[in-house]
């Protein structure tokens, strides 16, 4: 059932025993939204837990709340409410859906959302799920502490490339301004996120050596980079910014990063300048936004690459421009 911001606030208010979760491979939006909501609900004396079927990337350890994250393990639990943040389908939360039996409230902003929950609030105009959490806080006049403001600013800023991408609206900037008034410090957050281990910077030239550009004529080109299994194990979760290099090349319309997860599975990140790559991701069982999407392809690296590049090329040729 579709619900409003006010309905979402009521559902949260009525529940006492609440589990919060978000998508695997969590990003700034998933984590910032989780931590801000966790602070708000636990300040009300509710029993709240964060379950995430993945590790929290080190880059986000500066946010208050990461130490509360638990892995879904053991026996099946019940709860009054399972809140699923920033995830467009149930598979995106991994094992959490198997161990928690509760009505689901899904707060999300993905255009590819499949409306899997009992209650959903989906705003594909929102730059981040963090914007939706902020609106819920405003609805109930919540006390937004500096660490909650920091978490929400991180959620919003990371999903819109620090206010540079097409999803940045006047509303996004207004919310961000309020969060700064409430104590978020953009330069501190940016510095934390930009700082990387030496190994990540040293890997960059090796990754750029894999760059290929596929000429697609007037439709714009496709650029690909590849991270093989060895590179991934060394870099763990710090590969986030690599896709921007092929994306930023003059004449490139679609950028694709292939990350070899194992012998038979490849994580694919898609970025575009104008084409709708969420459709491309959906056709491989993934999802996302028009200009940033992803999927996992259950094939060896070379085969996955051939399949996705061919599909992207066809999409460009067919003029699937958003
Ligand atoms: P990234 O390339 O940064 O992993 O993901 C880009 C966007 O696509 C994010 O909004 C992310 O949530 C979404 N996305 C990435 N992979 C998947 C996937 O496998 N399934 C779905 N539904 N969405 C994905
Ligand atoms: Mn996300
Ligand atoms: Mn998001």
UniProtKB/TrEMBL annotation:
InterPro entries: DDH_dom, DHH_sf, DHHA1_dom, Oligoribo/pAp-PDE_c-di-AMP_PDE. GO terms for molecular function: hydrolase activity. It is an enzyme of class 3 (hydrolase). Residues 237-311 form the DHHA1 domain. Keywords: Hydrolase. Its EC number is 3.1.-.-. Residues 17-156 form the DDH domain. This is Bifunctional oligoribonuclease and PAP phosphatase NrnA. It comes from Sporomusa sphaeroides DSM 2875.
